[in-house]
Amino acid sequence: MTFVNPTSPDGGSRTYRRDKIGAMTASVTSATRRSRRARPRRRATFTSVLGELLLTAGVLVLLFVAWQMWIGDIIINAQKNDEGAAISQQLASTPAPTPPPLIEHDDGTTSYEIPVPAAPAESQWLGQMHIPRFGVDYNKGIYGGTTRAKTLDKLGIGVYTNSKMPGEVGNFAMAGHRTTWGKPFNQLDKLQVGDAIVVETADGWYTYRFRTLEYVKPNQTDVLFDVPQVPGVETGERYITLTACSPLYSLAERIVAFGVFESFQPRAEGPPTALTDPPPPPAAPSV
After folding, report:
1. For 233-277, what is each residue's pLDDT tens digit?
2. What is the DSSP pairing of strand 170-175 with strand 238-246?
3. Cα distances (Å, whole numbers) of residue 189 to 25, 134, 176, 246
4. Superfamily (CATH) of domain 66-276
5. Among 86, 120, 174, 279, whose CB has the most other CB atoms within 10 angstroms?
6. What are the tens digits of pLDDT across the range 1-13?
């Protein structure tokens, strides 16, 4: 098909072949497409693959650290408190043992003879710990031994070898994590003088009161002596010692909380006032 341009400057006519223009346009488009298809793709090199693998590994490591330091702690902490509440409920539903005999003191007051539980074997359950300053739901298990693999990582609070037992004259000494694995001793630095530290066993409740906090080197084991930090001395007093790593996320030092014994409450009489009175304001987590 042809068409005539009537306004051609020379008065003549120019004839254009529409089919040729169309064919030329199609040819150019087809060539462009072939040129695009013909471009070679970049091949993956060893360096690029290695970089992507390292980047992926880095992301996975960061996710694992986040789990260990924060997310996992929240979940494990809640699980341990739930387990503790279940154990306390089980103890409460079991017939209470006969209370120990009353002892009359020189000042005319009386108190129960304090039963001393047998020392637990490694990883064996001894009792539950309640610290109202750490929250009304704080209820952590106490087990024999202080190895990470068998007690501190998997179970909770561990009792040092050769430690005295709850209510026994001397030093009832324990260790626990301050970070990771539920961090039962995370808030040791938030304890205030007079705060209750209550140990619950099948016999009843042993109430201690917090007195002081210290930071020591890992080799300063004198904090575990019967009279903490005073070797070769007997006072007839009953102490409690809680230890954890310090500062947070470090093994450089140990944070040590000391307390003194206040009273024993037999199970037949129900929980002590330290657990039934309105609790103190809960301490914020140490981060």
Report:
1. 999 999 999 999 999 989 999 999 999 999 999 999 999 999 999
2. parallel
3. 82, 11, 13, 10
4. Sortase (2.40.260.10)
5. 174
6. 433 444 444 444 4
CB 247 within 8 A of CB 263: no
Q: Which tokens sit at 119?
A: 């020392």
Hey, what are 179's tokens?
């970070």
Q: How many CA atoms lie within 13 A of 155 on its CB side?
A: 24
The domain spans of the chain are: 66-276
Residues 247 and 234: their CA atoms lie apart, in Å, by: 32
pLDDT of residue 126: 98
261 DSSP β-pair partners: 208
Determine the Cα–Cα distance for residues 80 and 140; give it in Å rounded to an integer: 6
Of 257, 236, 248, 243, nearest to 193 by C-alpha is 257
Say which DSSP state 223 is in.
G
